[in-house]
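#struct-pred

JT: dropping the chains for the assembly here, can someone run the whole complex?
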Amino acid sequence: MSDLLEEELGTWRRSHYSVDIDPSLNEIQVIIMGWVSSIRDHGNIKFIMVNDRFGHIQVALKKKDSSSILLEKVEKLREHSSIAVKGKIRSEAKAPNSAEIVPLELKILSLAKKSSPFQMQSRKPAGIDTRMDLRALDLRRSLLQSIFNIRYTVLSSCRDFLKEEGFIEVNTPKIIATATEGGATLFPIFYYDREAFMAQSPQLYKEQLTMAFENVFEIAPIFRAEPSRTNRHLSEAISIDVEKAFVDYNDIMGLLEKMIVYVIKKINENNKTHLKFLGSALPQVTVPFPRYRYTELIELMQKAGESVSWGDDLAFQKLQRLEDLNAKTFYFVTDWPTAIKPFYVKPSNDQPKECESFDLMFKSLEISSGSTRIRRKEELIERMEKQGLKVGAFDYHLKVFDYGIPPHAGFGIGLERLIMSICNLENIRDATLYPRDIDRLTP
Amino acid sequence: MSDLLEEELGTWRRSHYSVDIDPSLNEIQVIIMGWVSSIRDHGNIKFIMVNDRFGHIQVALKKKDSSSILLEKVEKLREHSSIAVKGKIRSEAKAPNSAEIVPLELKILSLAKKSSPFQMQSRKPAGIDTRMDLRALDLRRSLLQSIFNIRYTVLSSCRDFLKEEGFIEVNTPKIIATATEGGATLFPIFYYDREAFMAQSPQLYKEQLTMAFENVFEIAPIFRAEPSRTNRHLSEAISIDVEKAFVDYNDIMGLLEKMIVYVIKKINENNKTHLKFLGSALPQVTVPFPRYRYTELIELMQKAGESVSWGDDLAFQKLQRLEDLNAKTFYFVTDWPTAIKPFYVKPSNDQPKECESFDLMFKSLEISSGSTRIRRKEELIERMEKQGLKVGAFDYHLKVFDYGIPPHAGFGIGLERLIMSICNLENIRDATLYPRDIDRLTP
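RK: done, full complex below.
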């Protein structure tokens, strides 16, 4: 019954990308397409609000001027249905955009069969699971539209920045034979008749590739079997991985902070409308970012009464209690204990208990790690053995170190955590379209 | 012993990104860094060729003008070692780039311990497995440098094109609960305590996302358990996936051919030096690409004496024998039998045995598939059942179809196959950095 009303596109195509119509186009005939966000009946006139990804426009349907077929179709409409409207633009001071569409014809392209189980206008319309179960619908909300448009600016401006800095984009395998940093958090795969794993990082590959391409980056998924249920961990995330030849960790910190400043500038330029919906300003950033040595931070924490010792990892909860740090936005923690960093991180020459490493923090959240890497095979093997890794399993990697791999350094930054920081999100799940965690595998 | 000669970067940094030095910079002091591609001893003078990702420059070391420490270091050098040279530029007509470096100081940053097992200058230096085992070294070859720089242009120009066309880049999960197109070619994963799979396509997600973002694209790995050993299949590949709301497959063919033309134009503009090493010109392209209906092609093949029937898939080997087709570069095959296309492909309204679908071919190689998609839930369910899929397993997907999903169409294009076509490669393995297939899981 209702199906009979659904029509094909046929020869109809949109006149414009957007419903965001200039009122000076008064009397121009257009075809708009989008989804219905509200229907209001004022007796002699009906208002249908049509949304597309740029905004919304009101379709004003006067009963006395409309054909019975048009009225019958509108009668069947329900919020979220996709429609096409052929009509004339009328500049109308009282309309939301100072313009509205007077419809001549209407096609129902796809009829919504149910009502949305959550409020689309609300900032917190429902529990996260309710929203996730109908994620594609949830994503029509203005707040999420804003977040994911900003996310696209982050992705594309990182790429532009790295291109300008002389990097080449690479893709490394996500199916790997051995764990990069120990096997605890890996997902195993049946790879034909063998066991393999999903890559938790492109680390070893990007290091190798500095031999051939010097400056490489990859933006790709990483996979971690995180057993914890928190608002800042995902089982599948996007990592922006950068590796550069002939530099050390200080150069890389300079590159990373420059990239963050570039990205925030681009969001301010390109996402003005989206920023309005966020409800909070972007972090203010200038280079250089503050730098704390790890040792210095441990002392600060001890003074603040936290029970921490040199050599401990910096716990999120403990950092959260340091008011000074949480008043900052981005800062670096440098020169970590060698023992708690991965095997490929280069120990300092004068003080090998410390290593040439950094974490980029946003308040108490770690969003990136980087370091100078070890380039001598014997030193790598020694560090692997100390960390209890099976050296033989890394043969395929170690053998290229016989052929003059250049000195190199790099970082990996978690895209979703960067988005959380920039957009002031509480839950990392809203920085990704379809989150994966210990409890969720669909949609 | 040799290790003692390896030095740290210290305060040294490159003066330029490239060794591709302008001879007019005569007498300017620079620091260059790169890998040694040859050492020639002419008695009183030694020539060291230093390569970086832009080219190479000759370092000319006169024995009588050089310190003993400099001479001693050069004595230890071996091809592929990474070095840094501080010296003066001298314009020199006989040098390869009309300029050379007169060294003042030299640092061996990383000493090659072994000689390369294959020839770096040769176009076919060794069997593919020998090269793959030392892939990072293999990638220093000029031919591969060219391919992967062109590949980067393909990636970045696709992204630029799609941005200009009003698309947003998305990332969809690679860990999924159910097969998209039947379960035959999936890699299973242990996902915590459940079974999951690696995504063979972002198909269902990109379709869903047209609800919220209308025009979406994703460039990401896809995973297929291909049991075949051929030169055109990989177990892990990069797919450029595009999906657009409010259009049909004809619009999408127009978009795809426009993208290919854009990409080839950009390679011609940006990769002049790299194109020289390819040894073959880029395919000439103009829009529209030729279009053959599937039915028409079957008739052509039958006339050519091939034993094919309407309803068969088009076999690579049989297509290869059609001289007319193989004289072309890119062309479309349209309106395929519904029965051999996936469940989400929309049957034609007038002739439901055919569907609104296309493959983009390059000679006899399929490089892309696209179609108008079904947007009615009942129709999707019917098609799933016909193809023997478990409808219940797609619940998470089907339920968003209750909320007014717009008409949509799209395509997926295999990046490596596109690179093969553009660069005239025989083996798809050279279009990817670290290939994965039934036999190869490392490096």
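JT: nice. Residues 142-164 of chain B form the longest helix (23 residues). Chain B has two domains: 2-110, 133-431.
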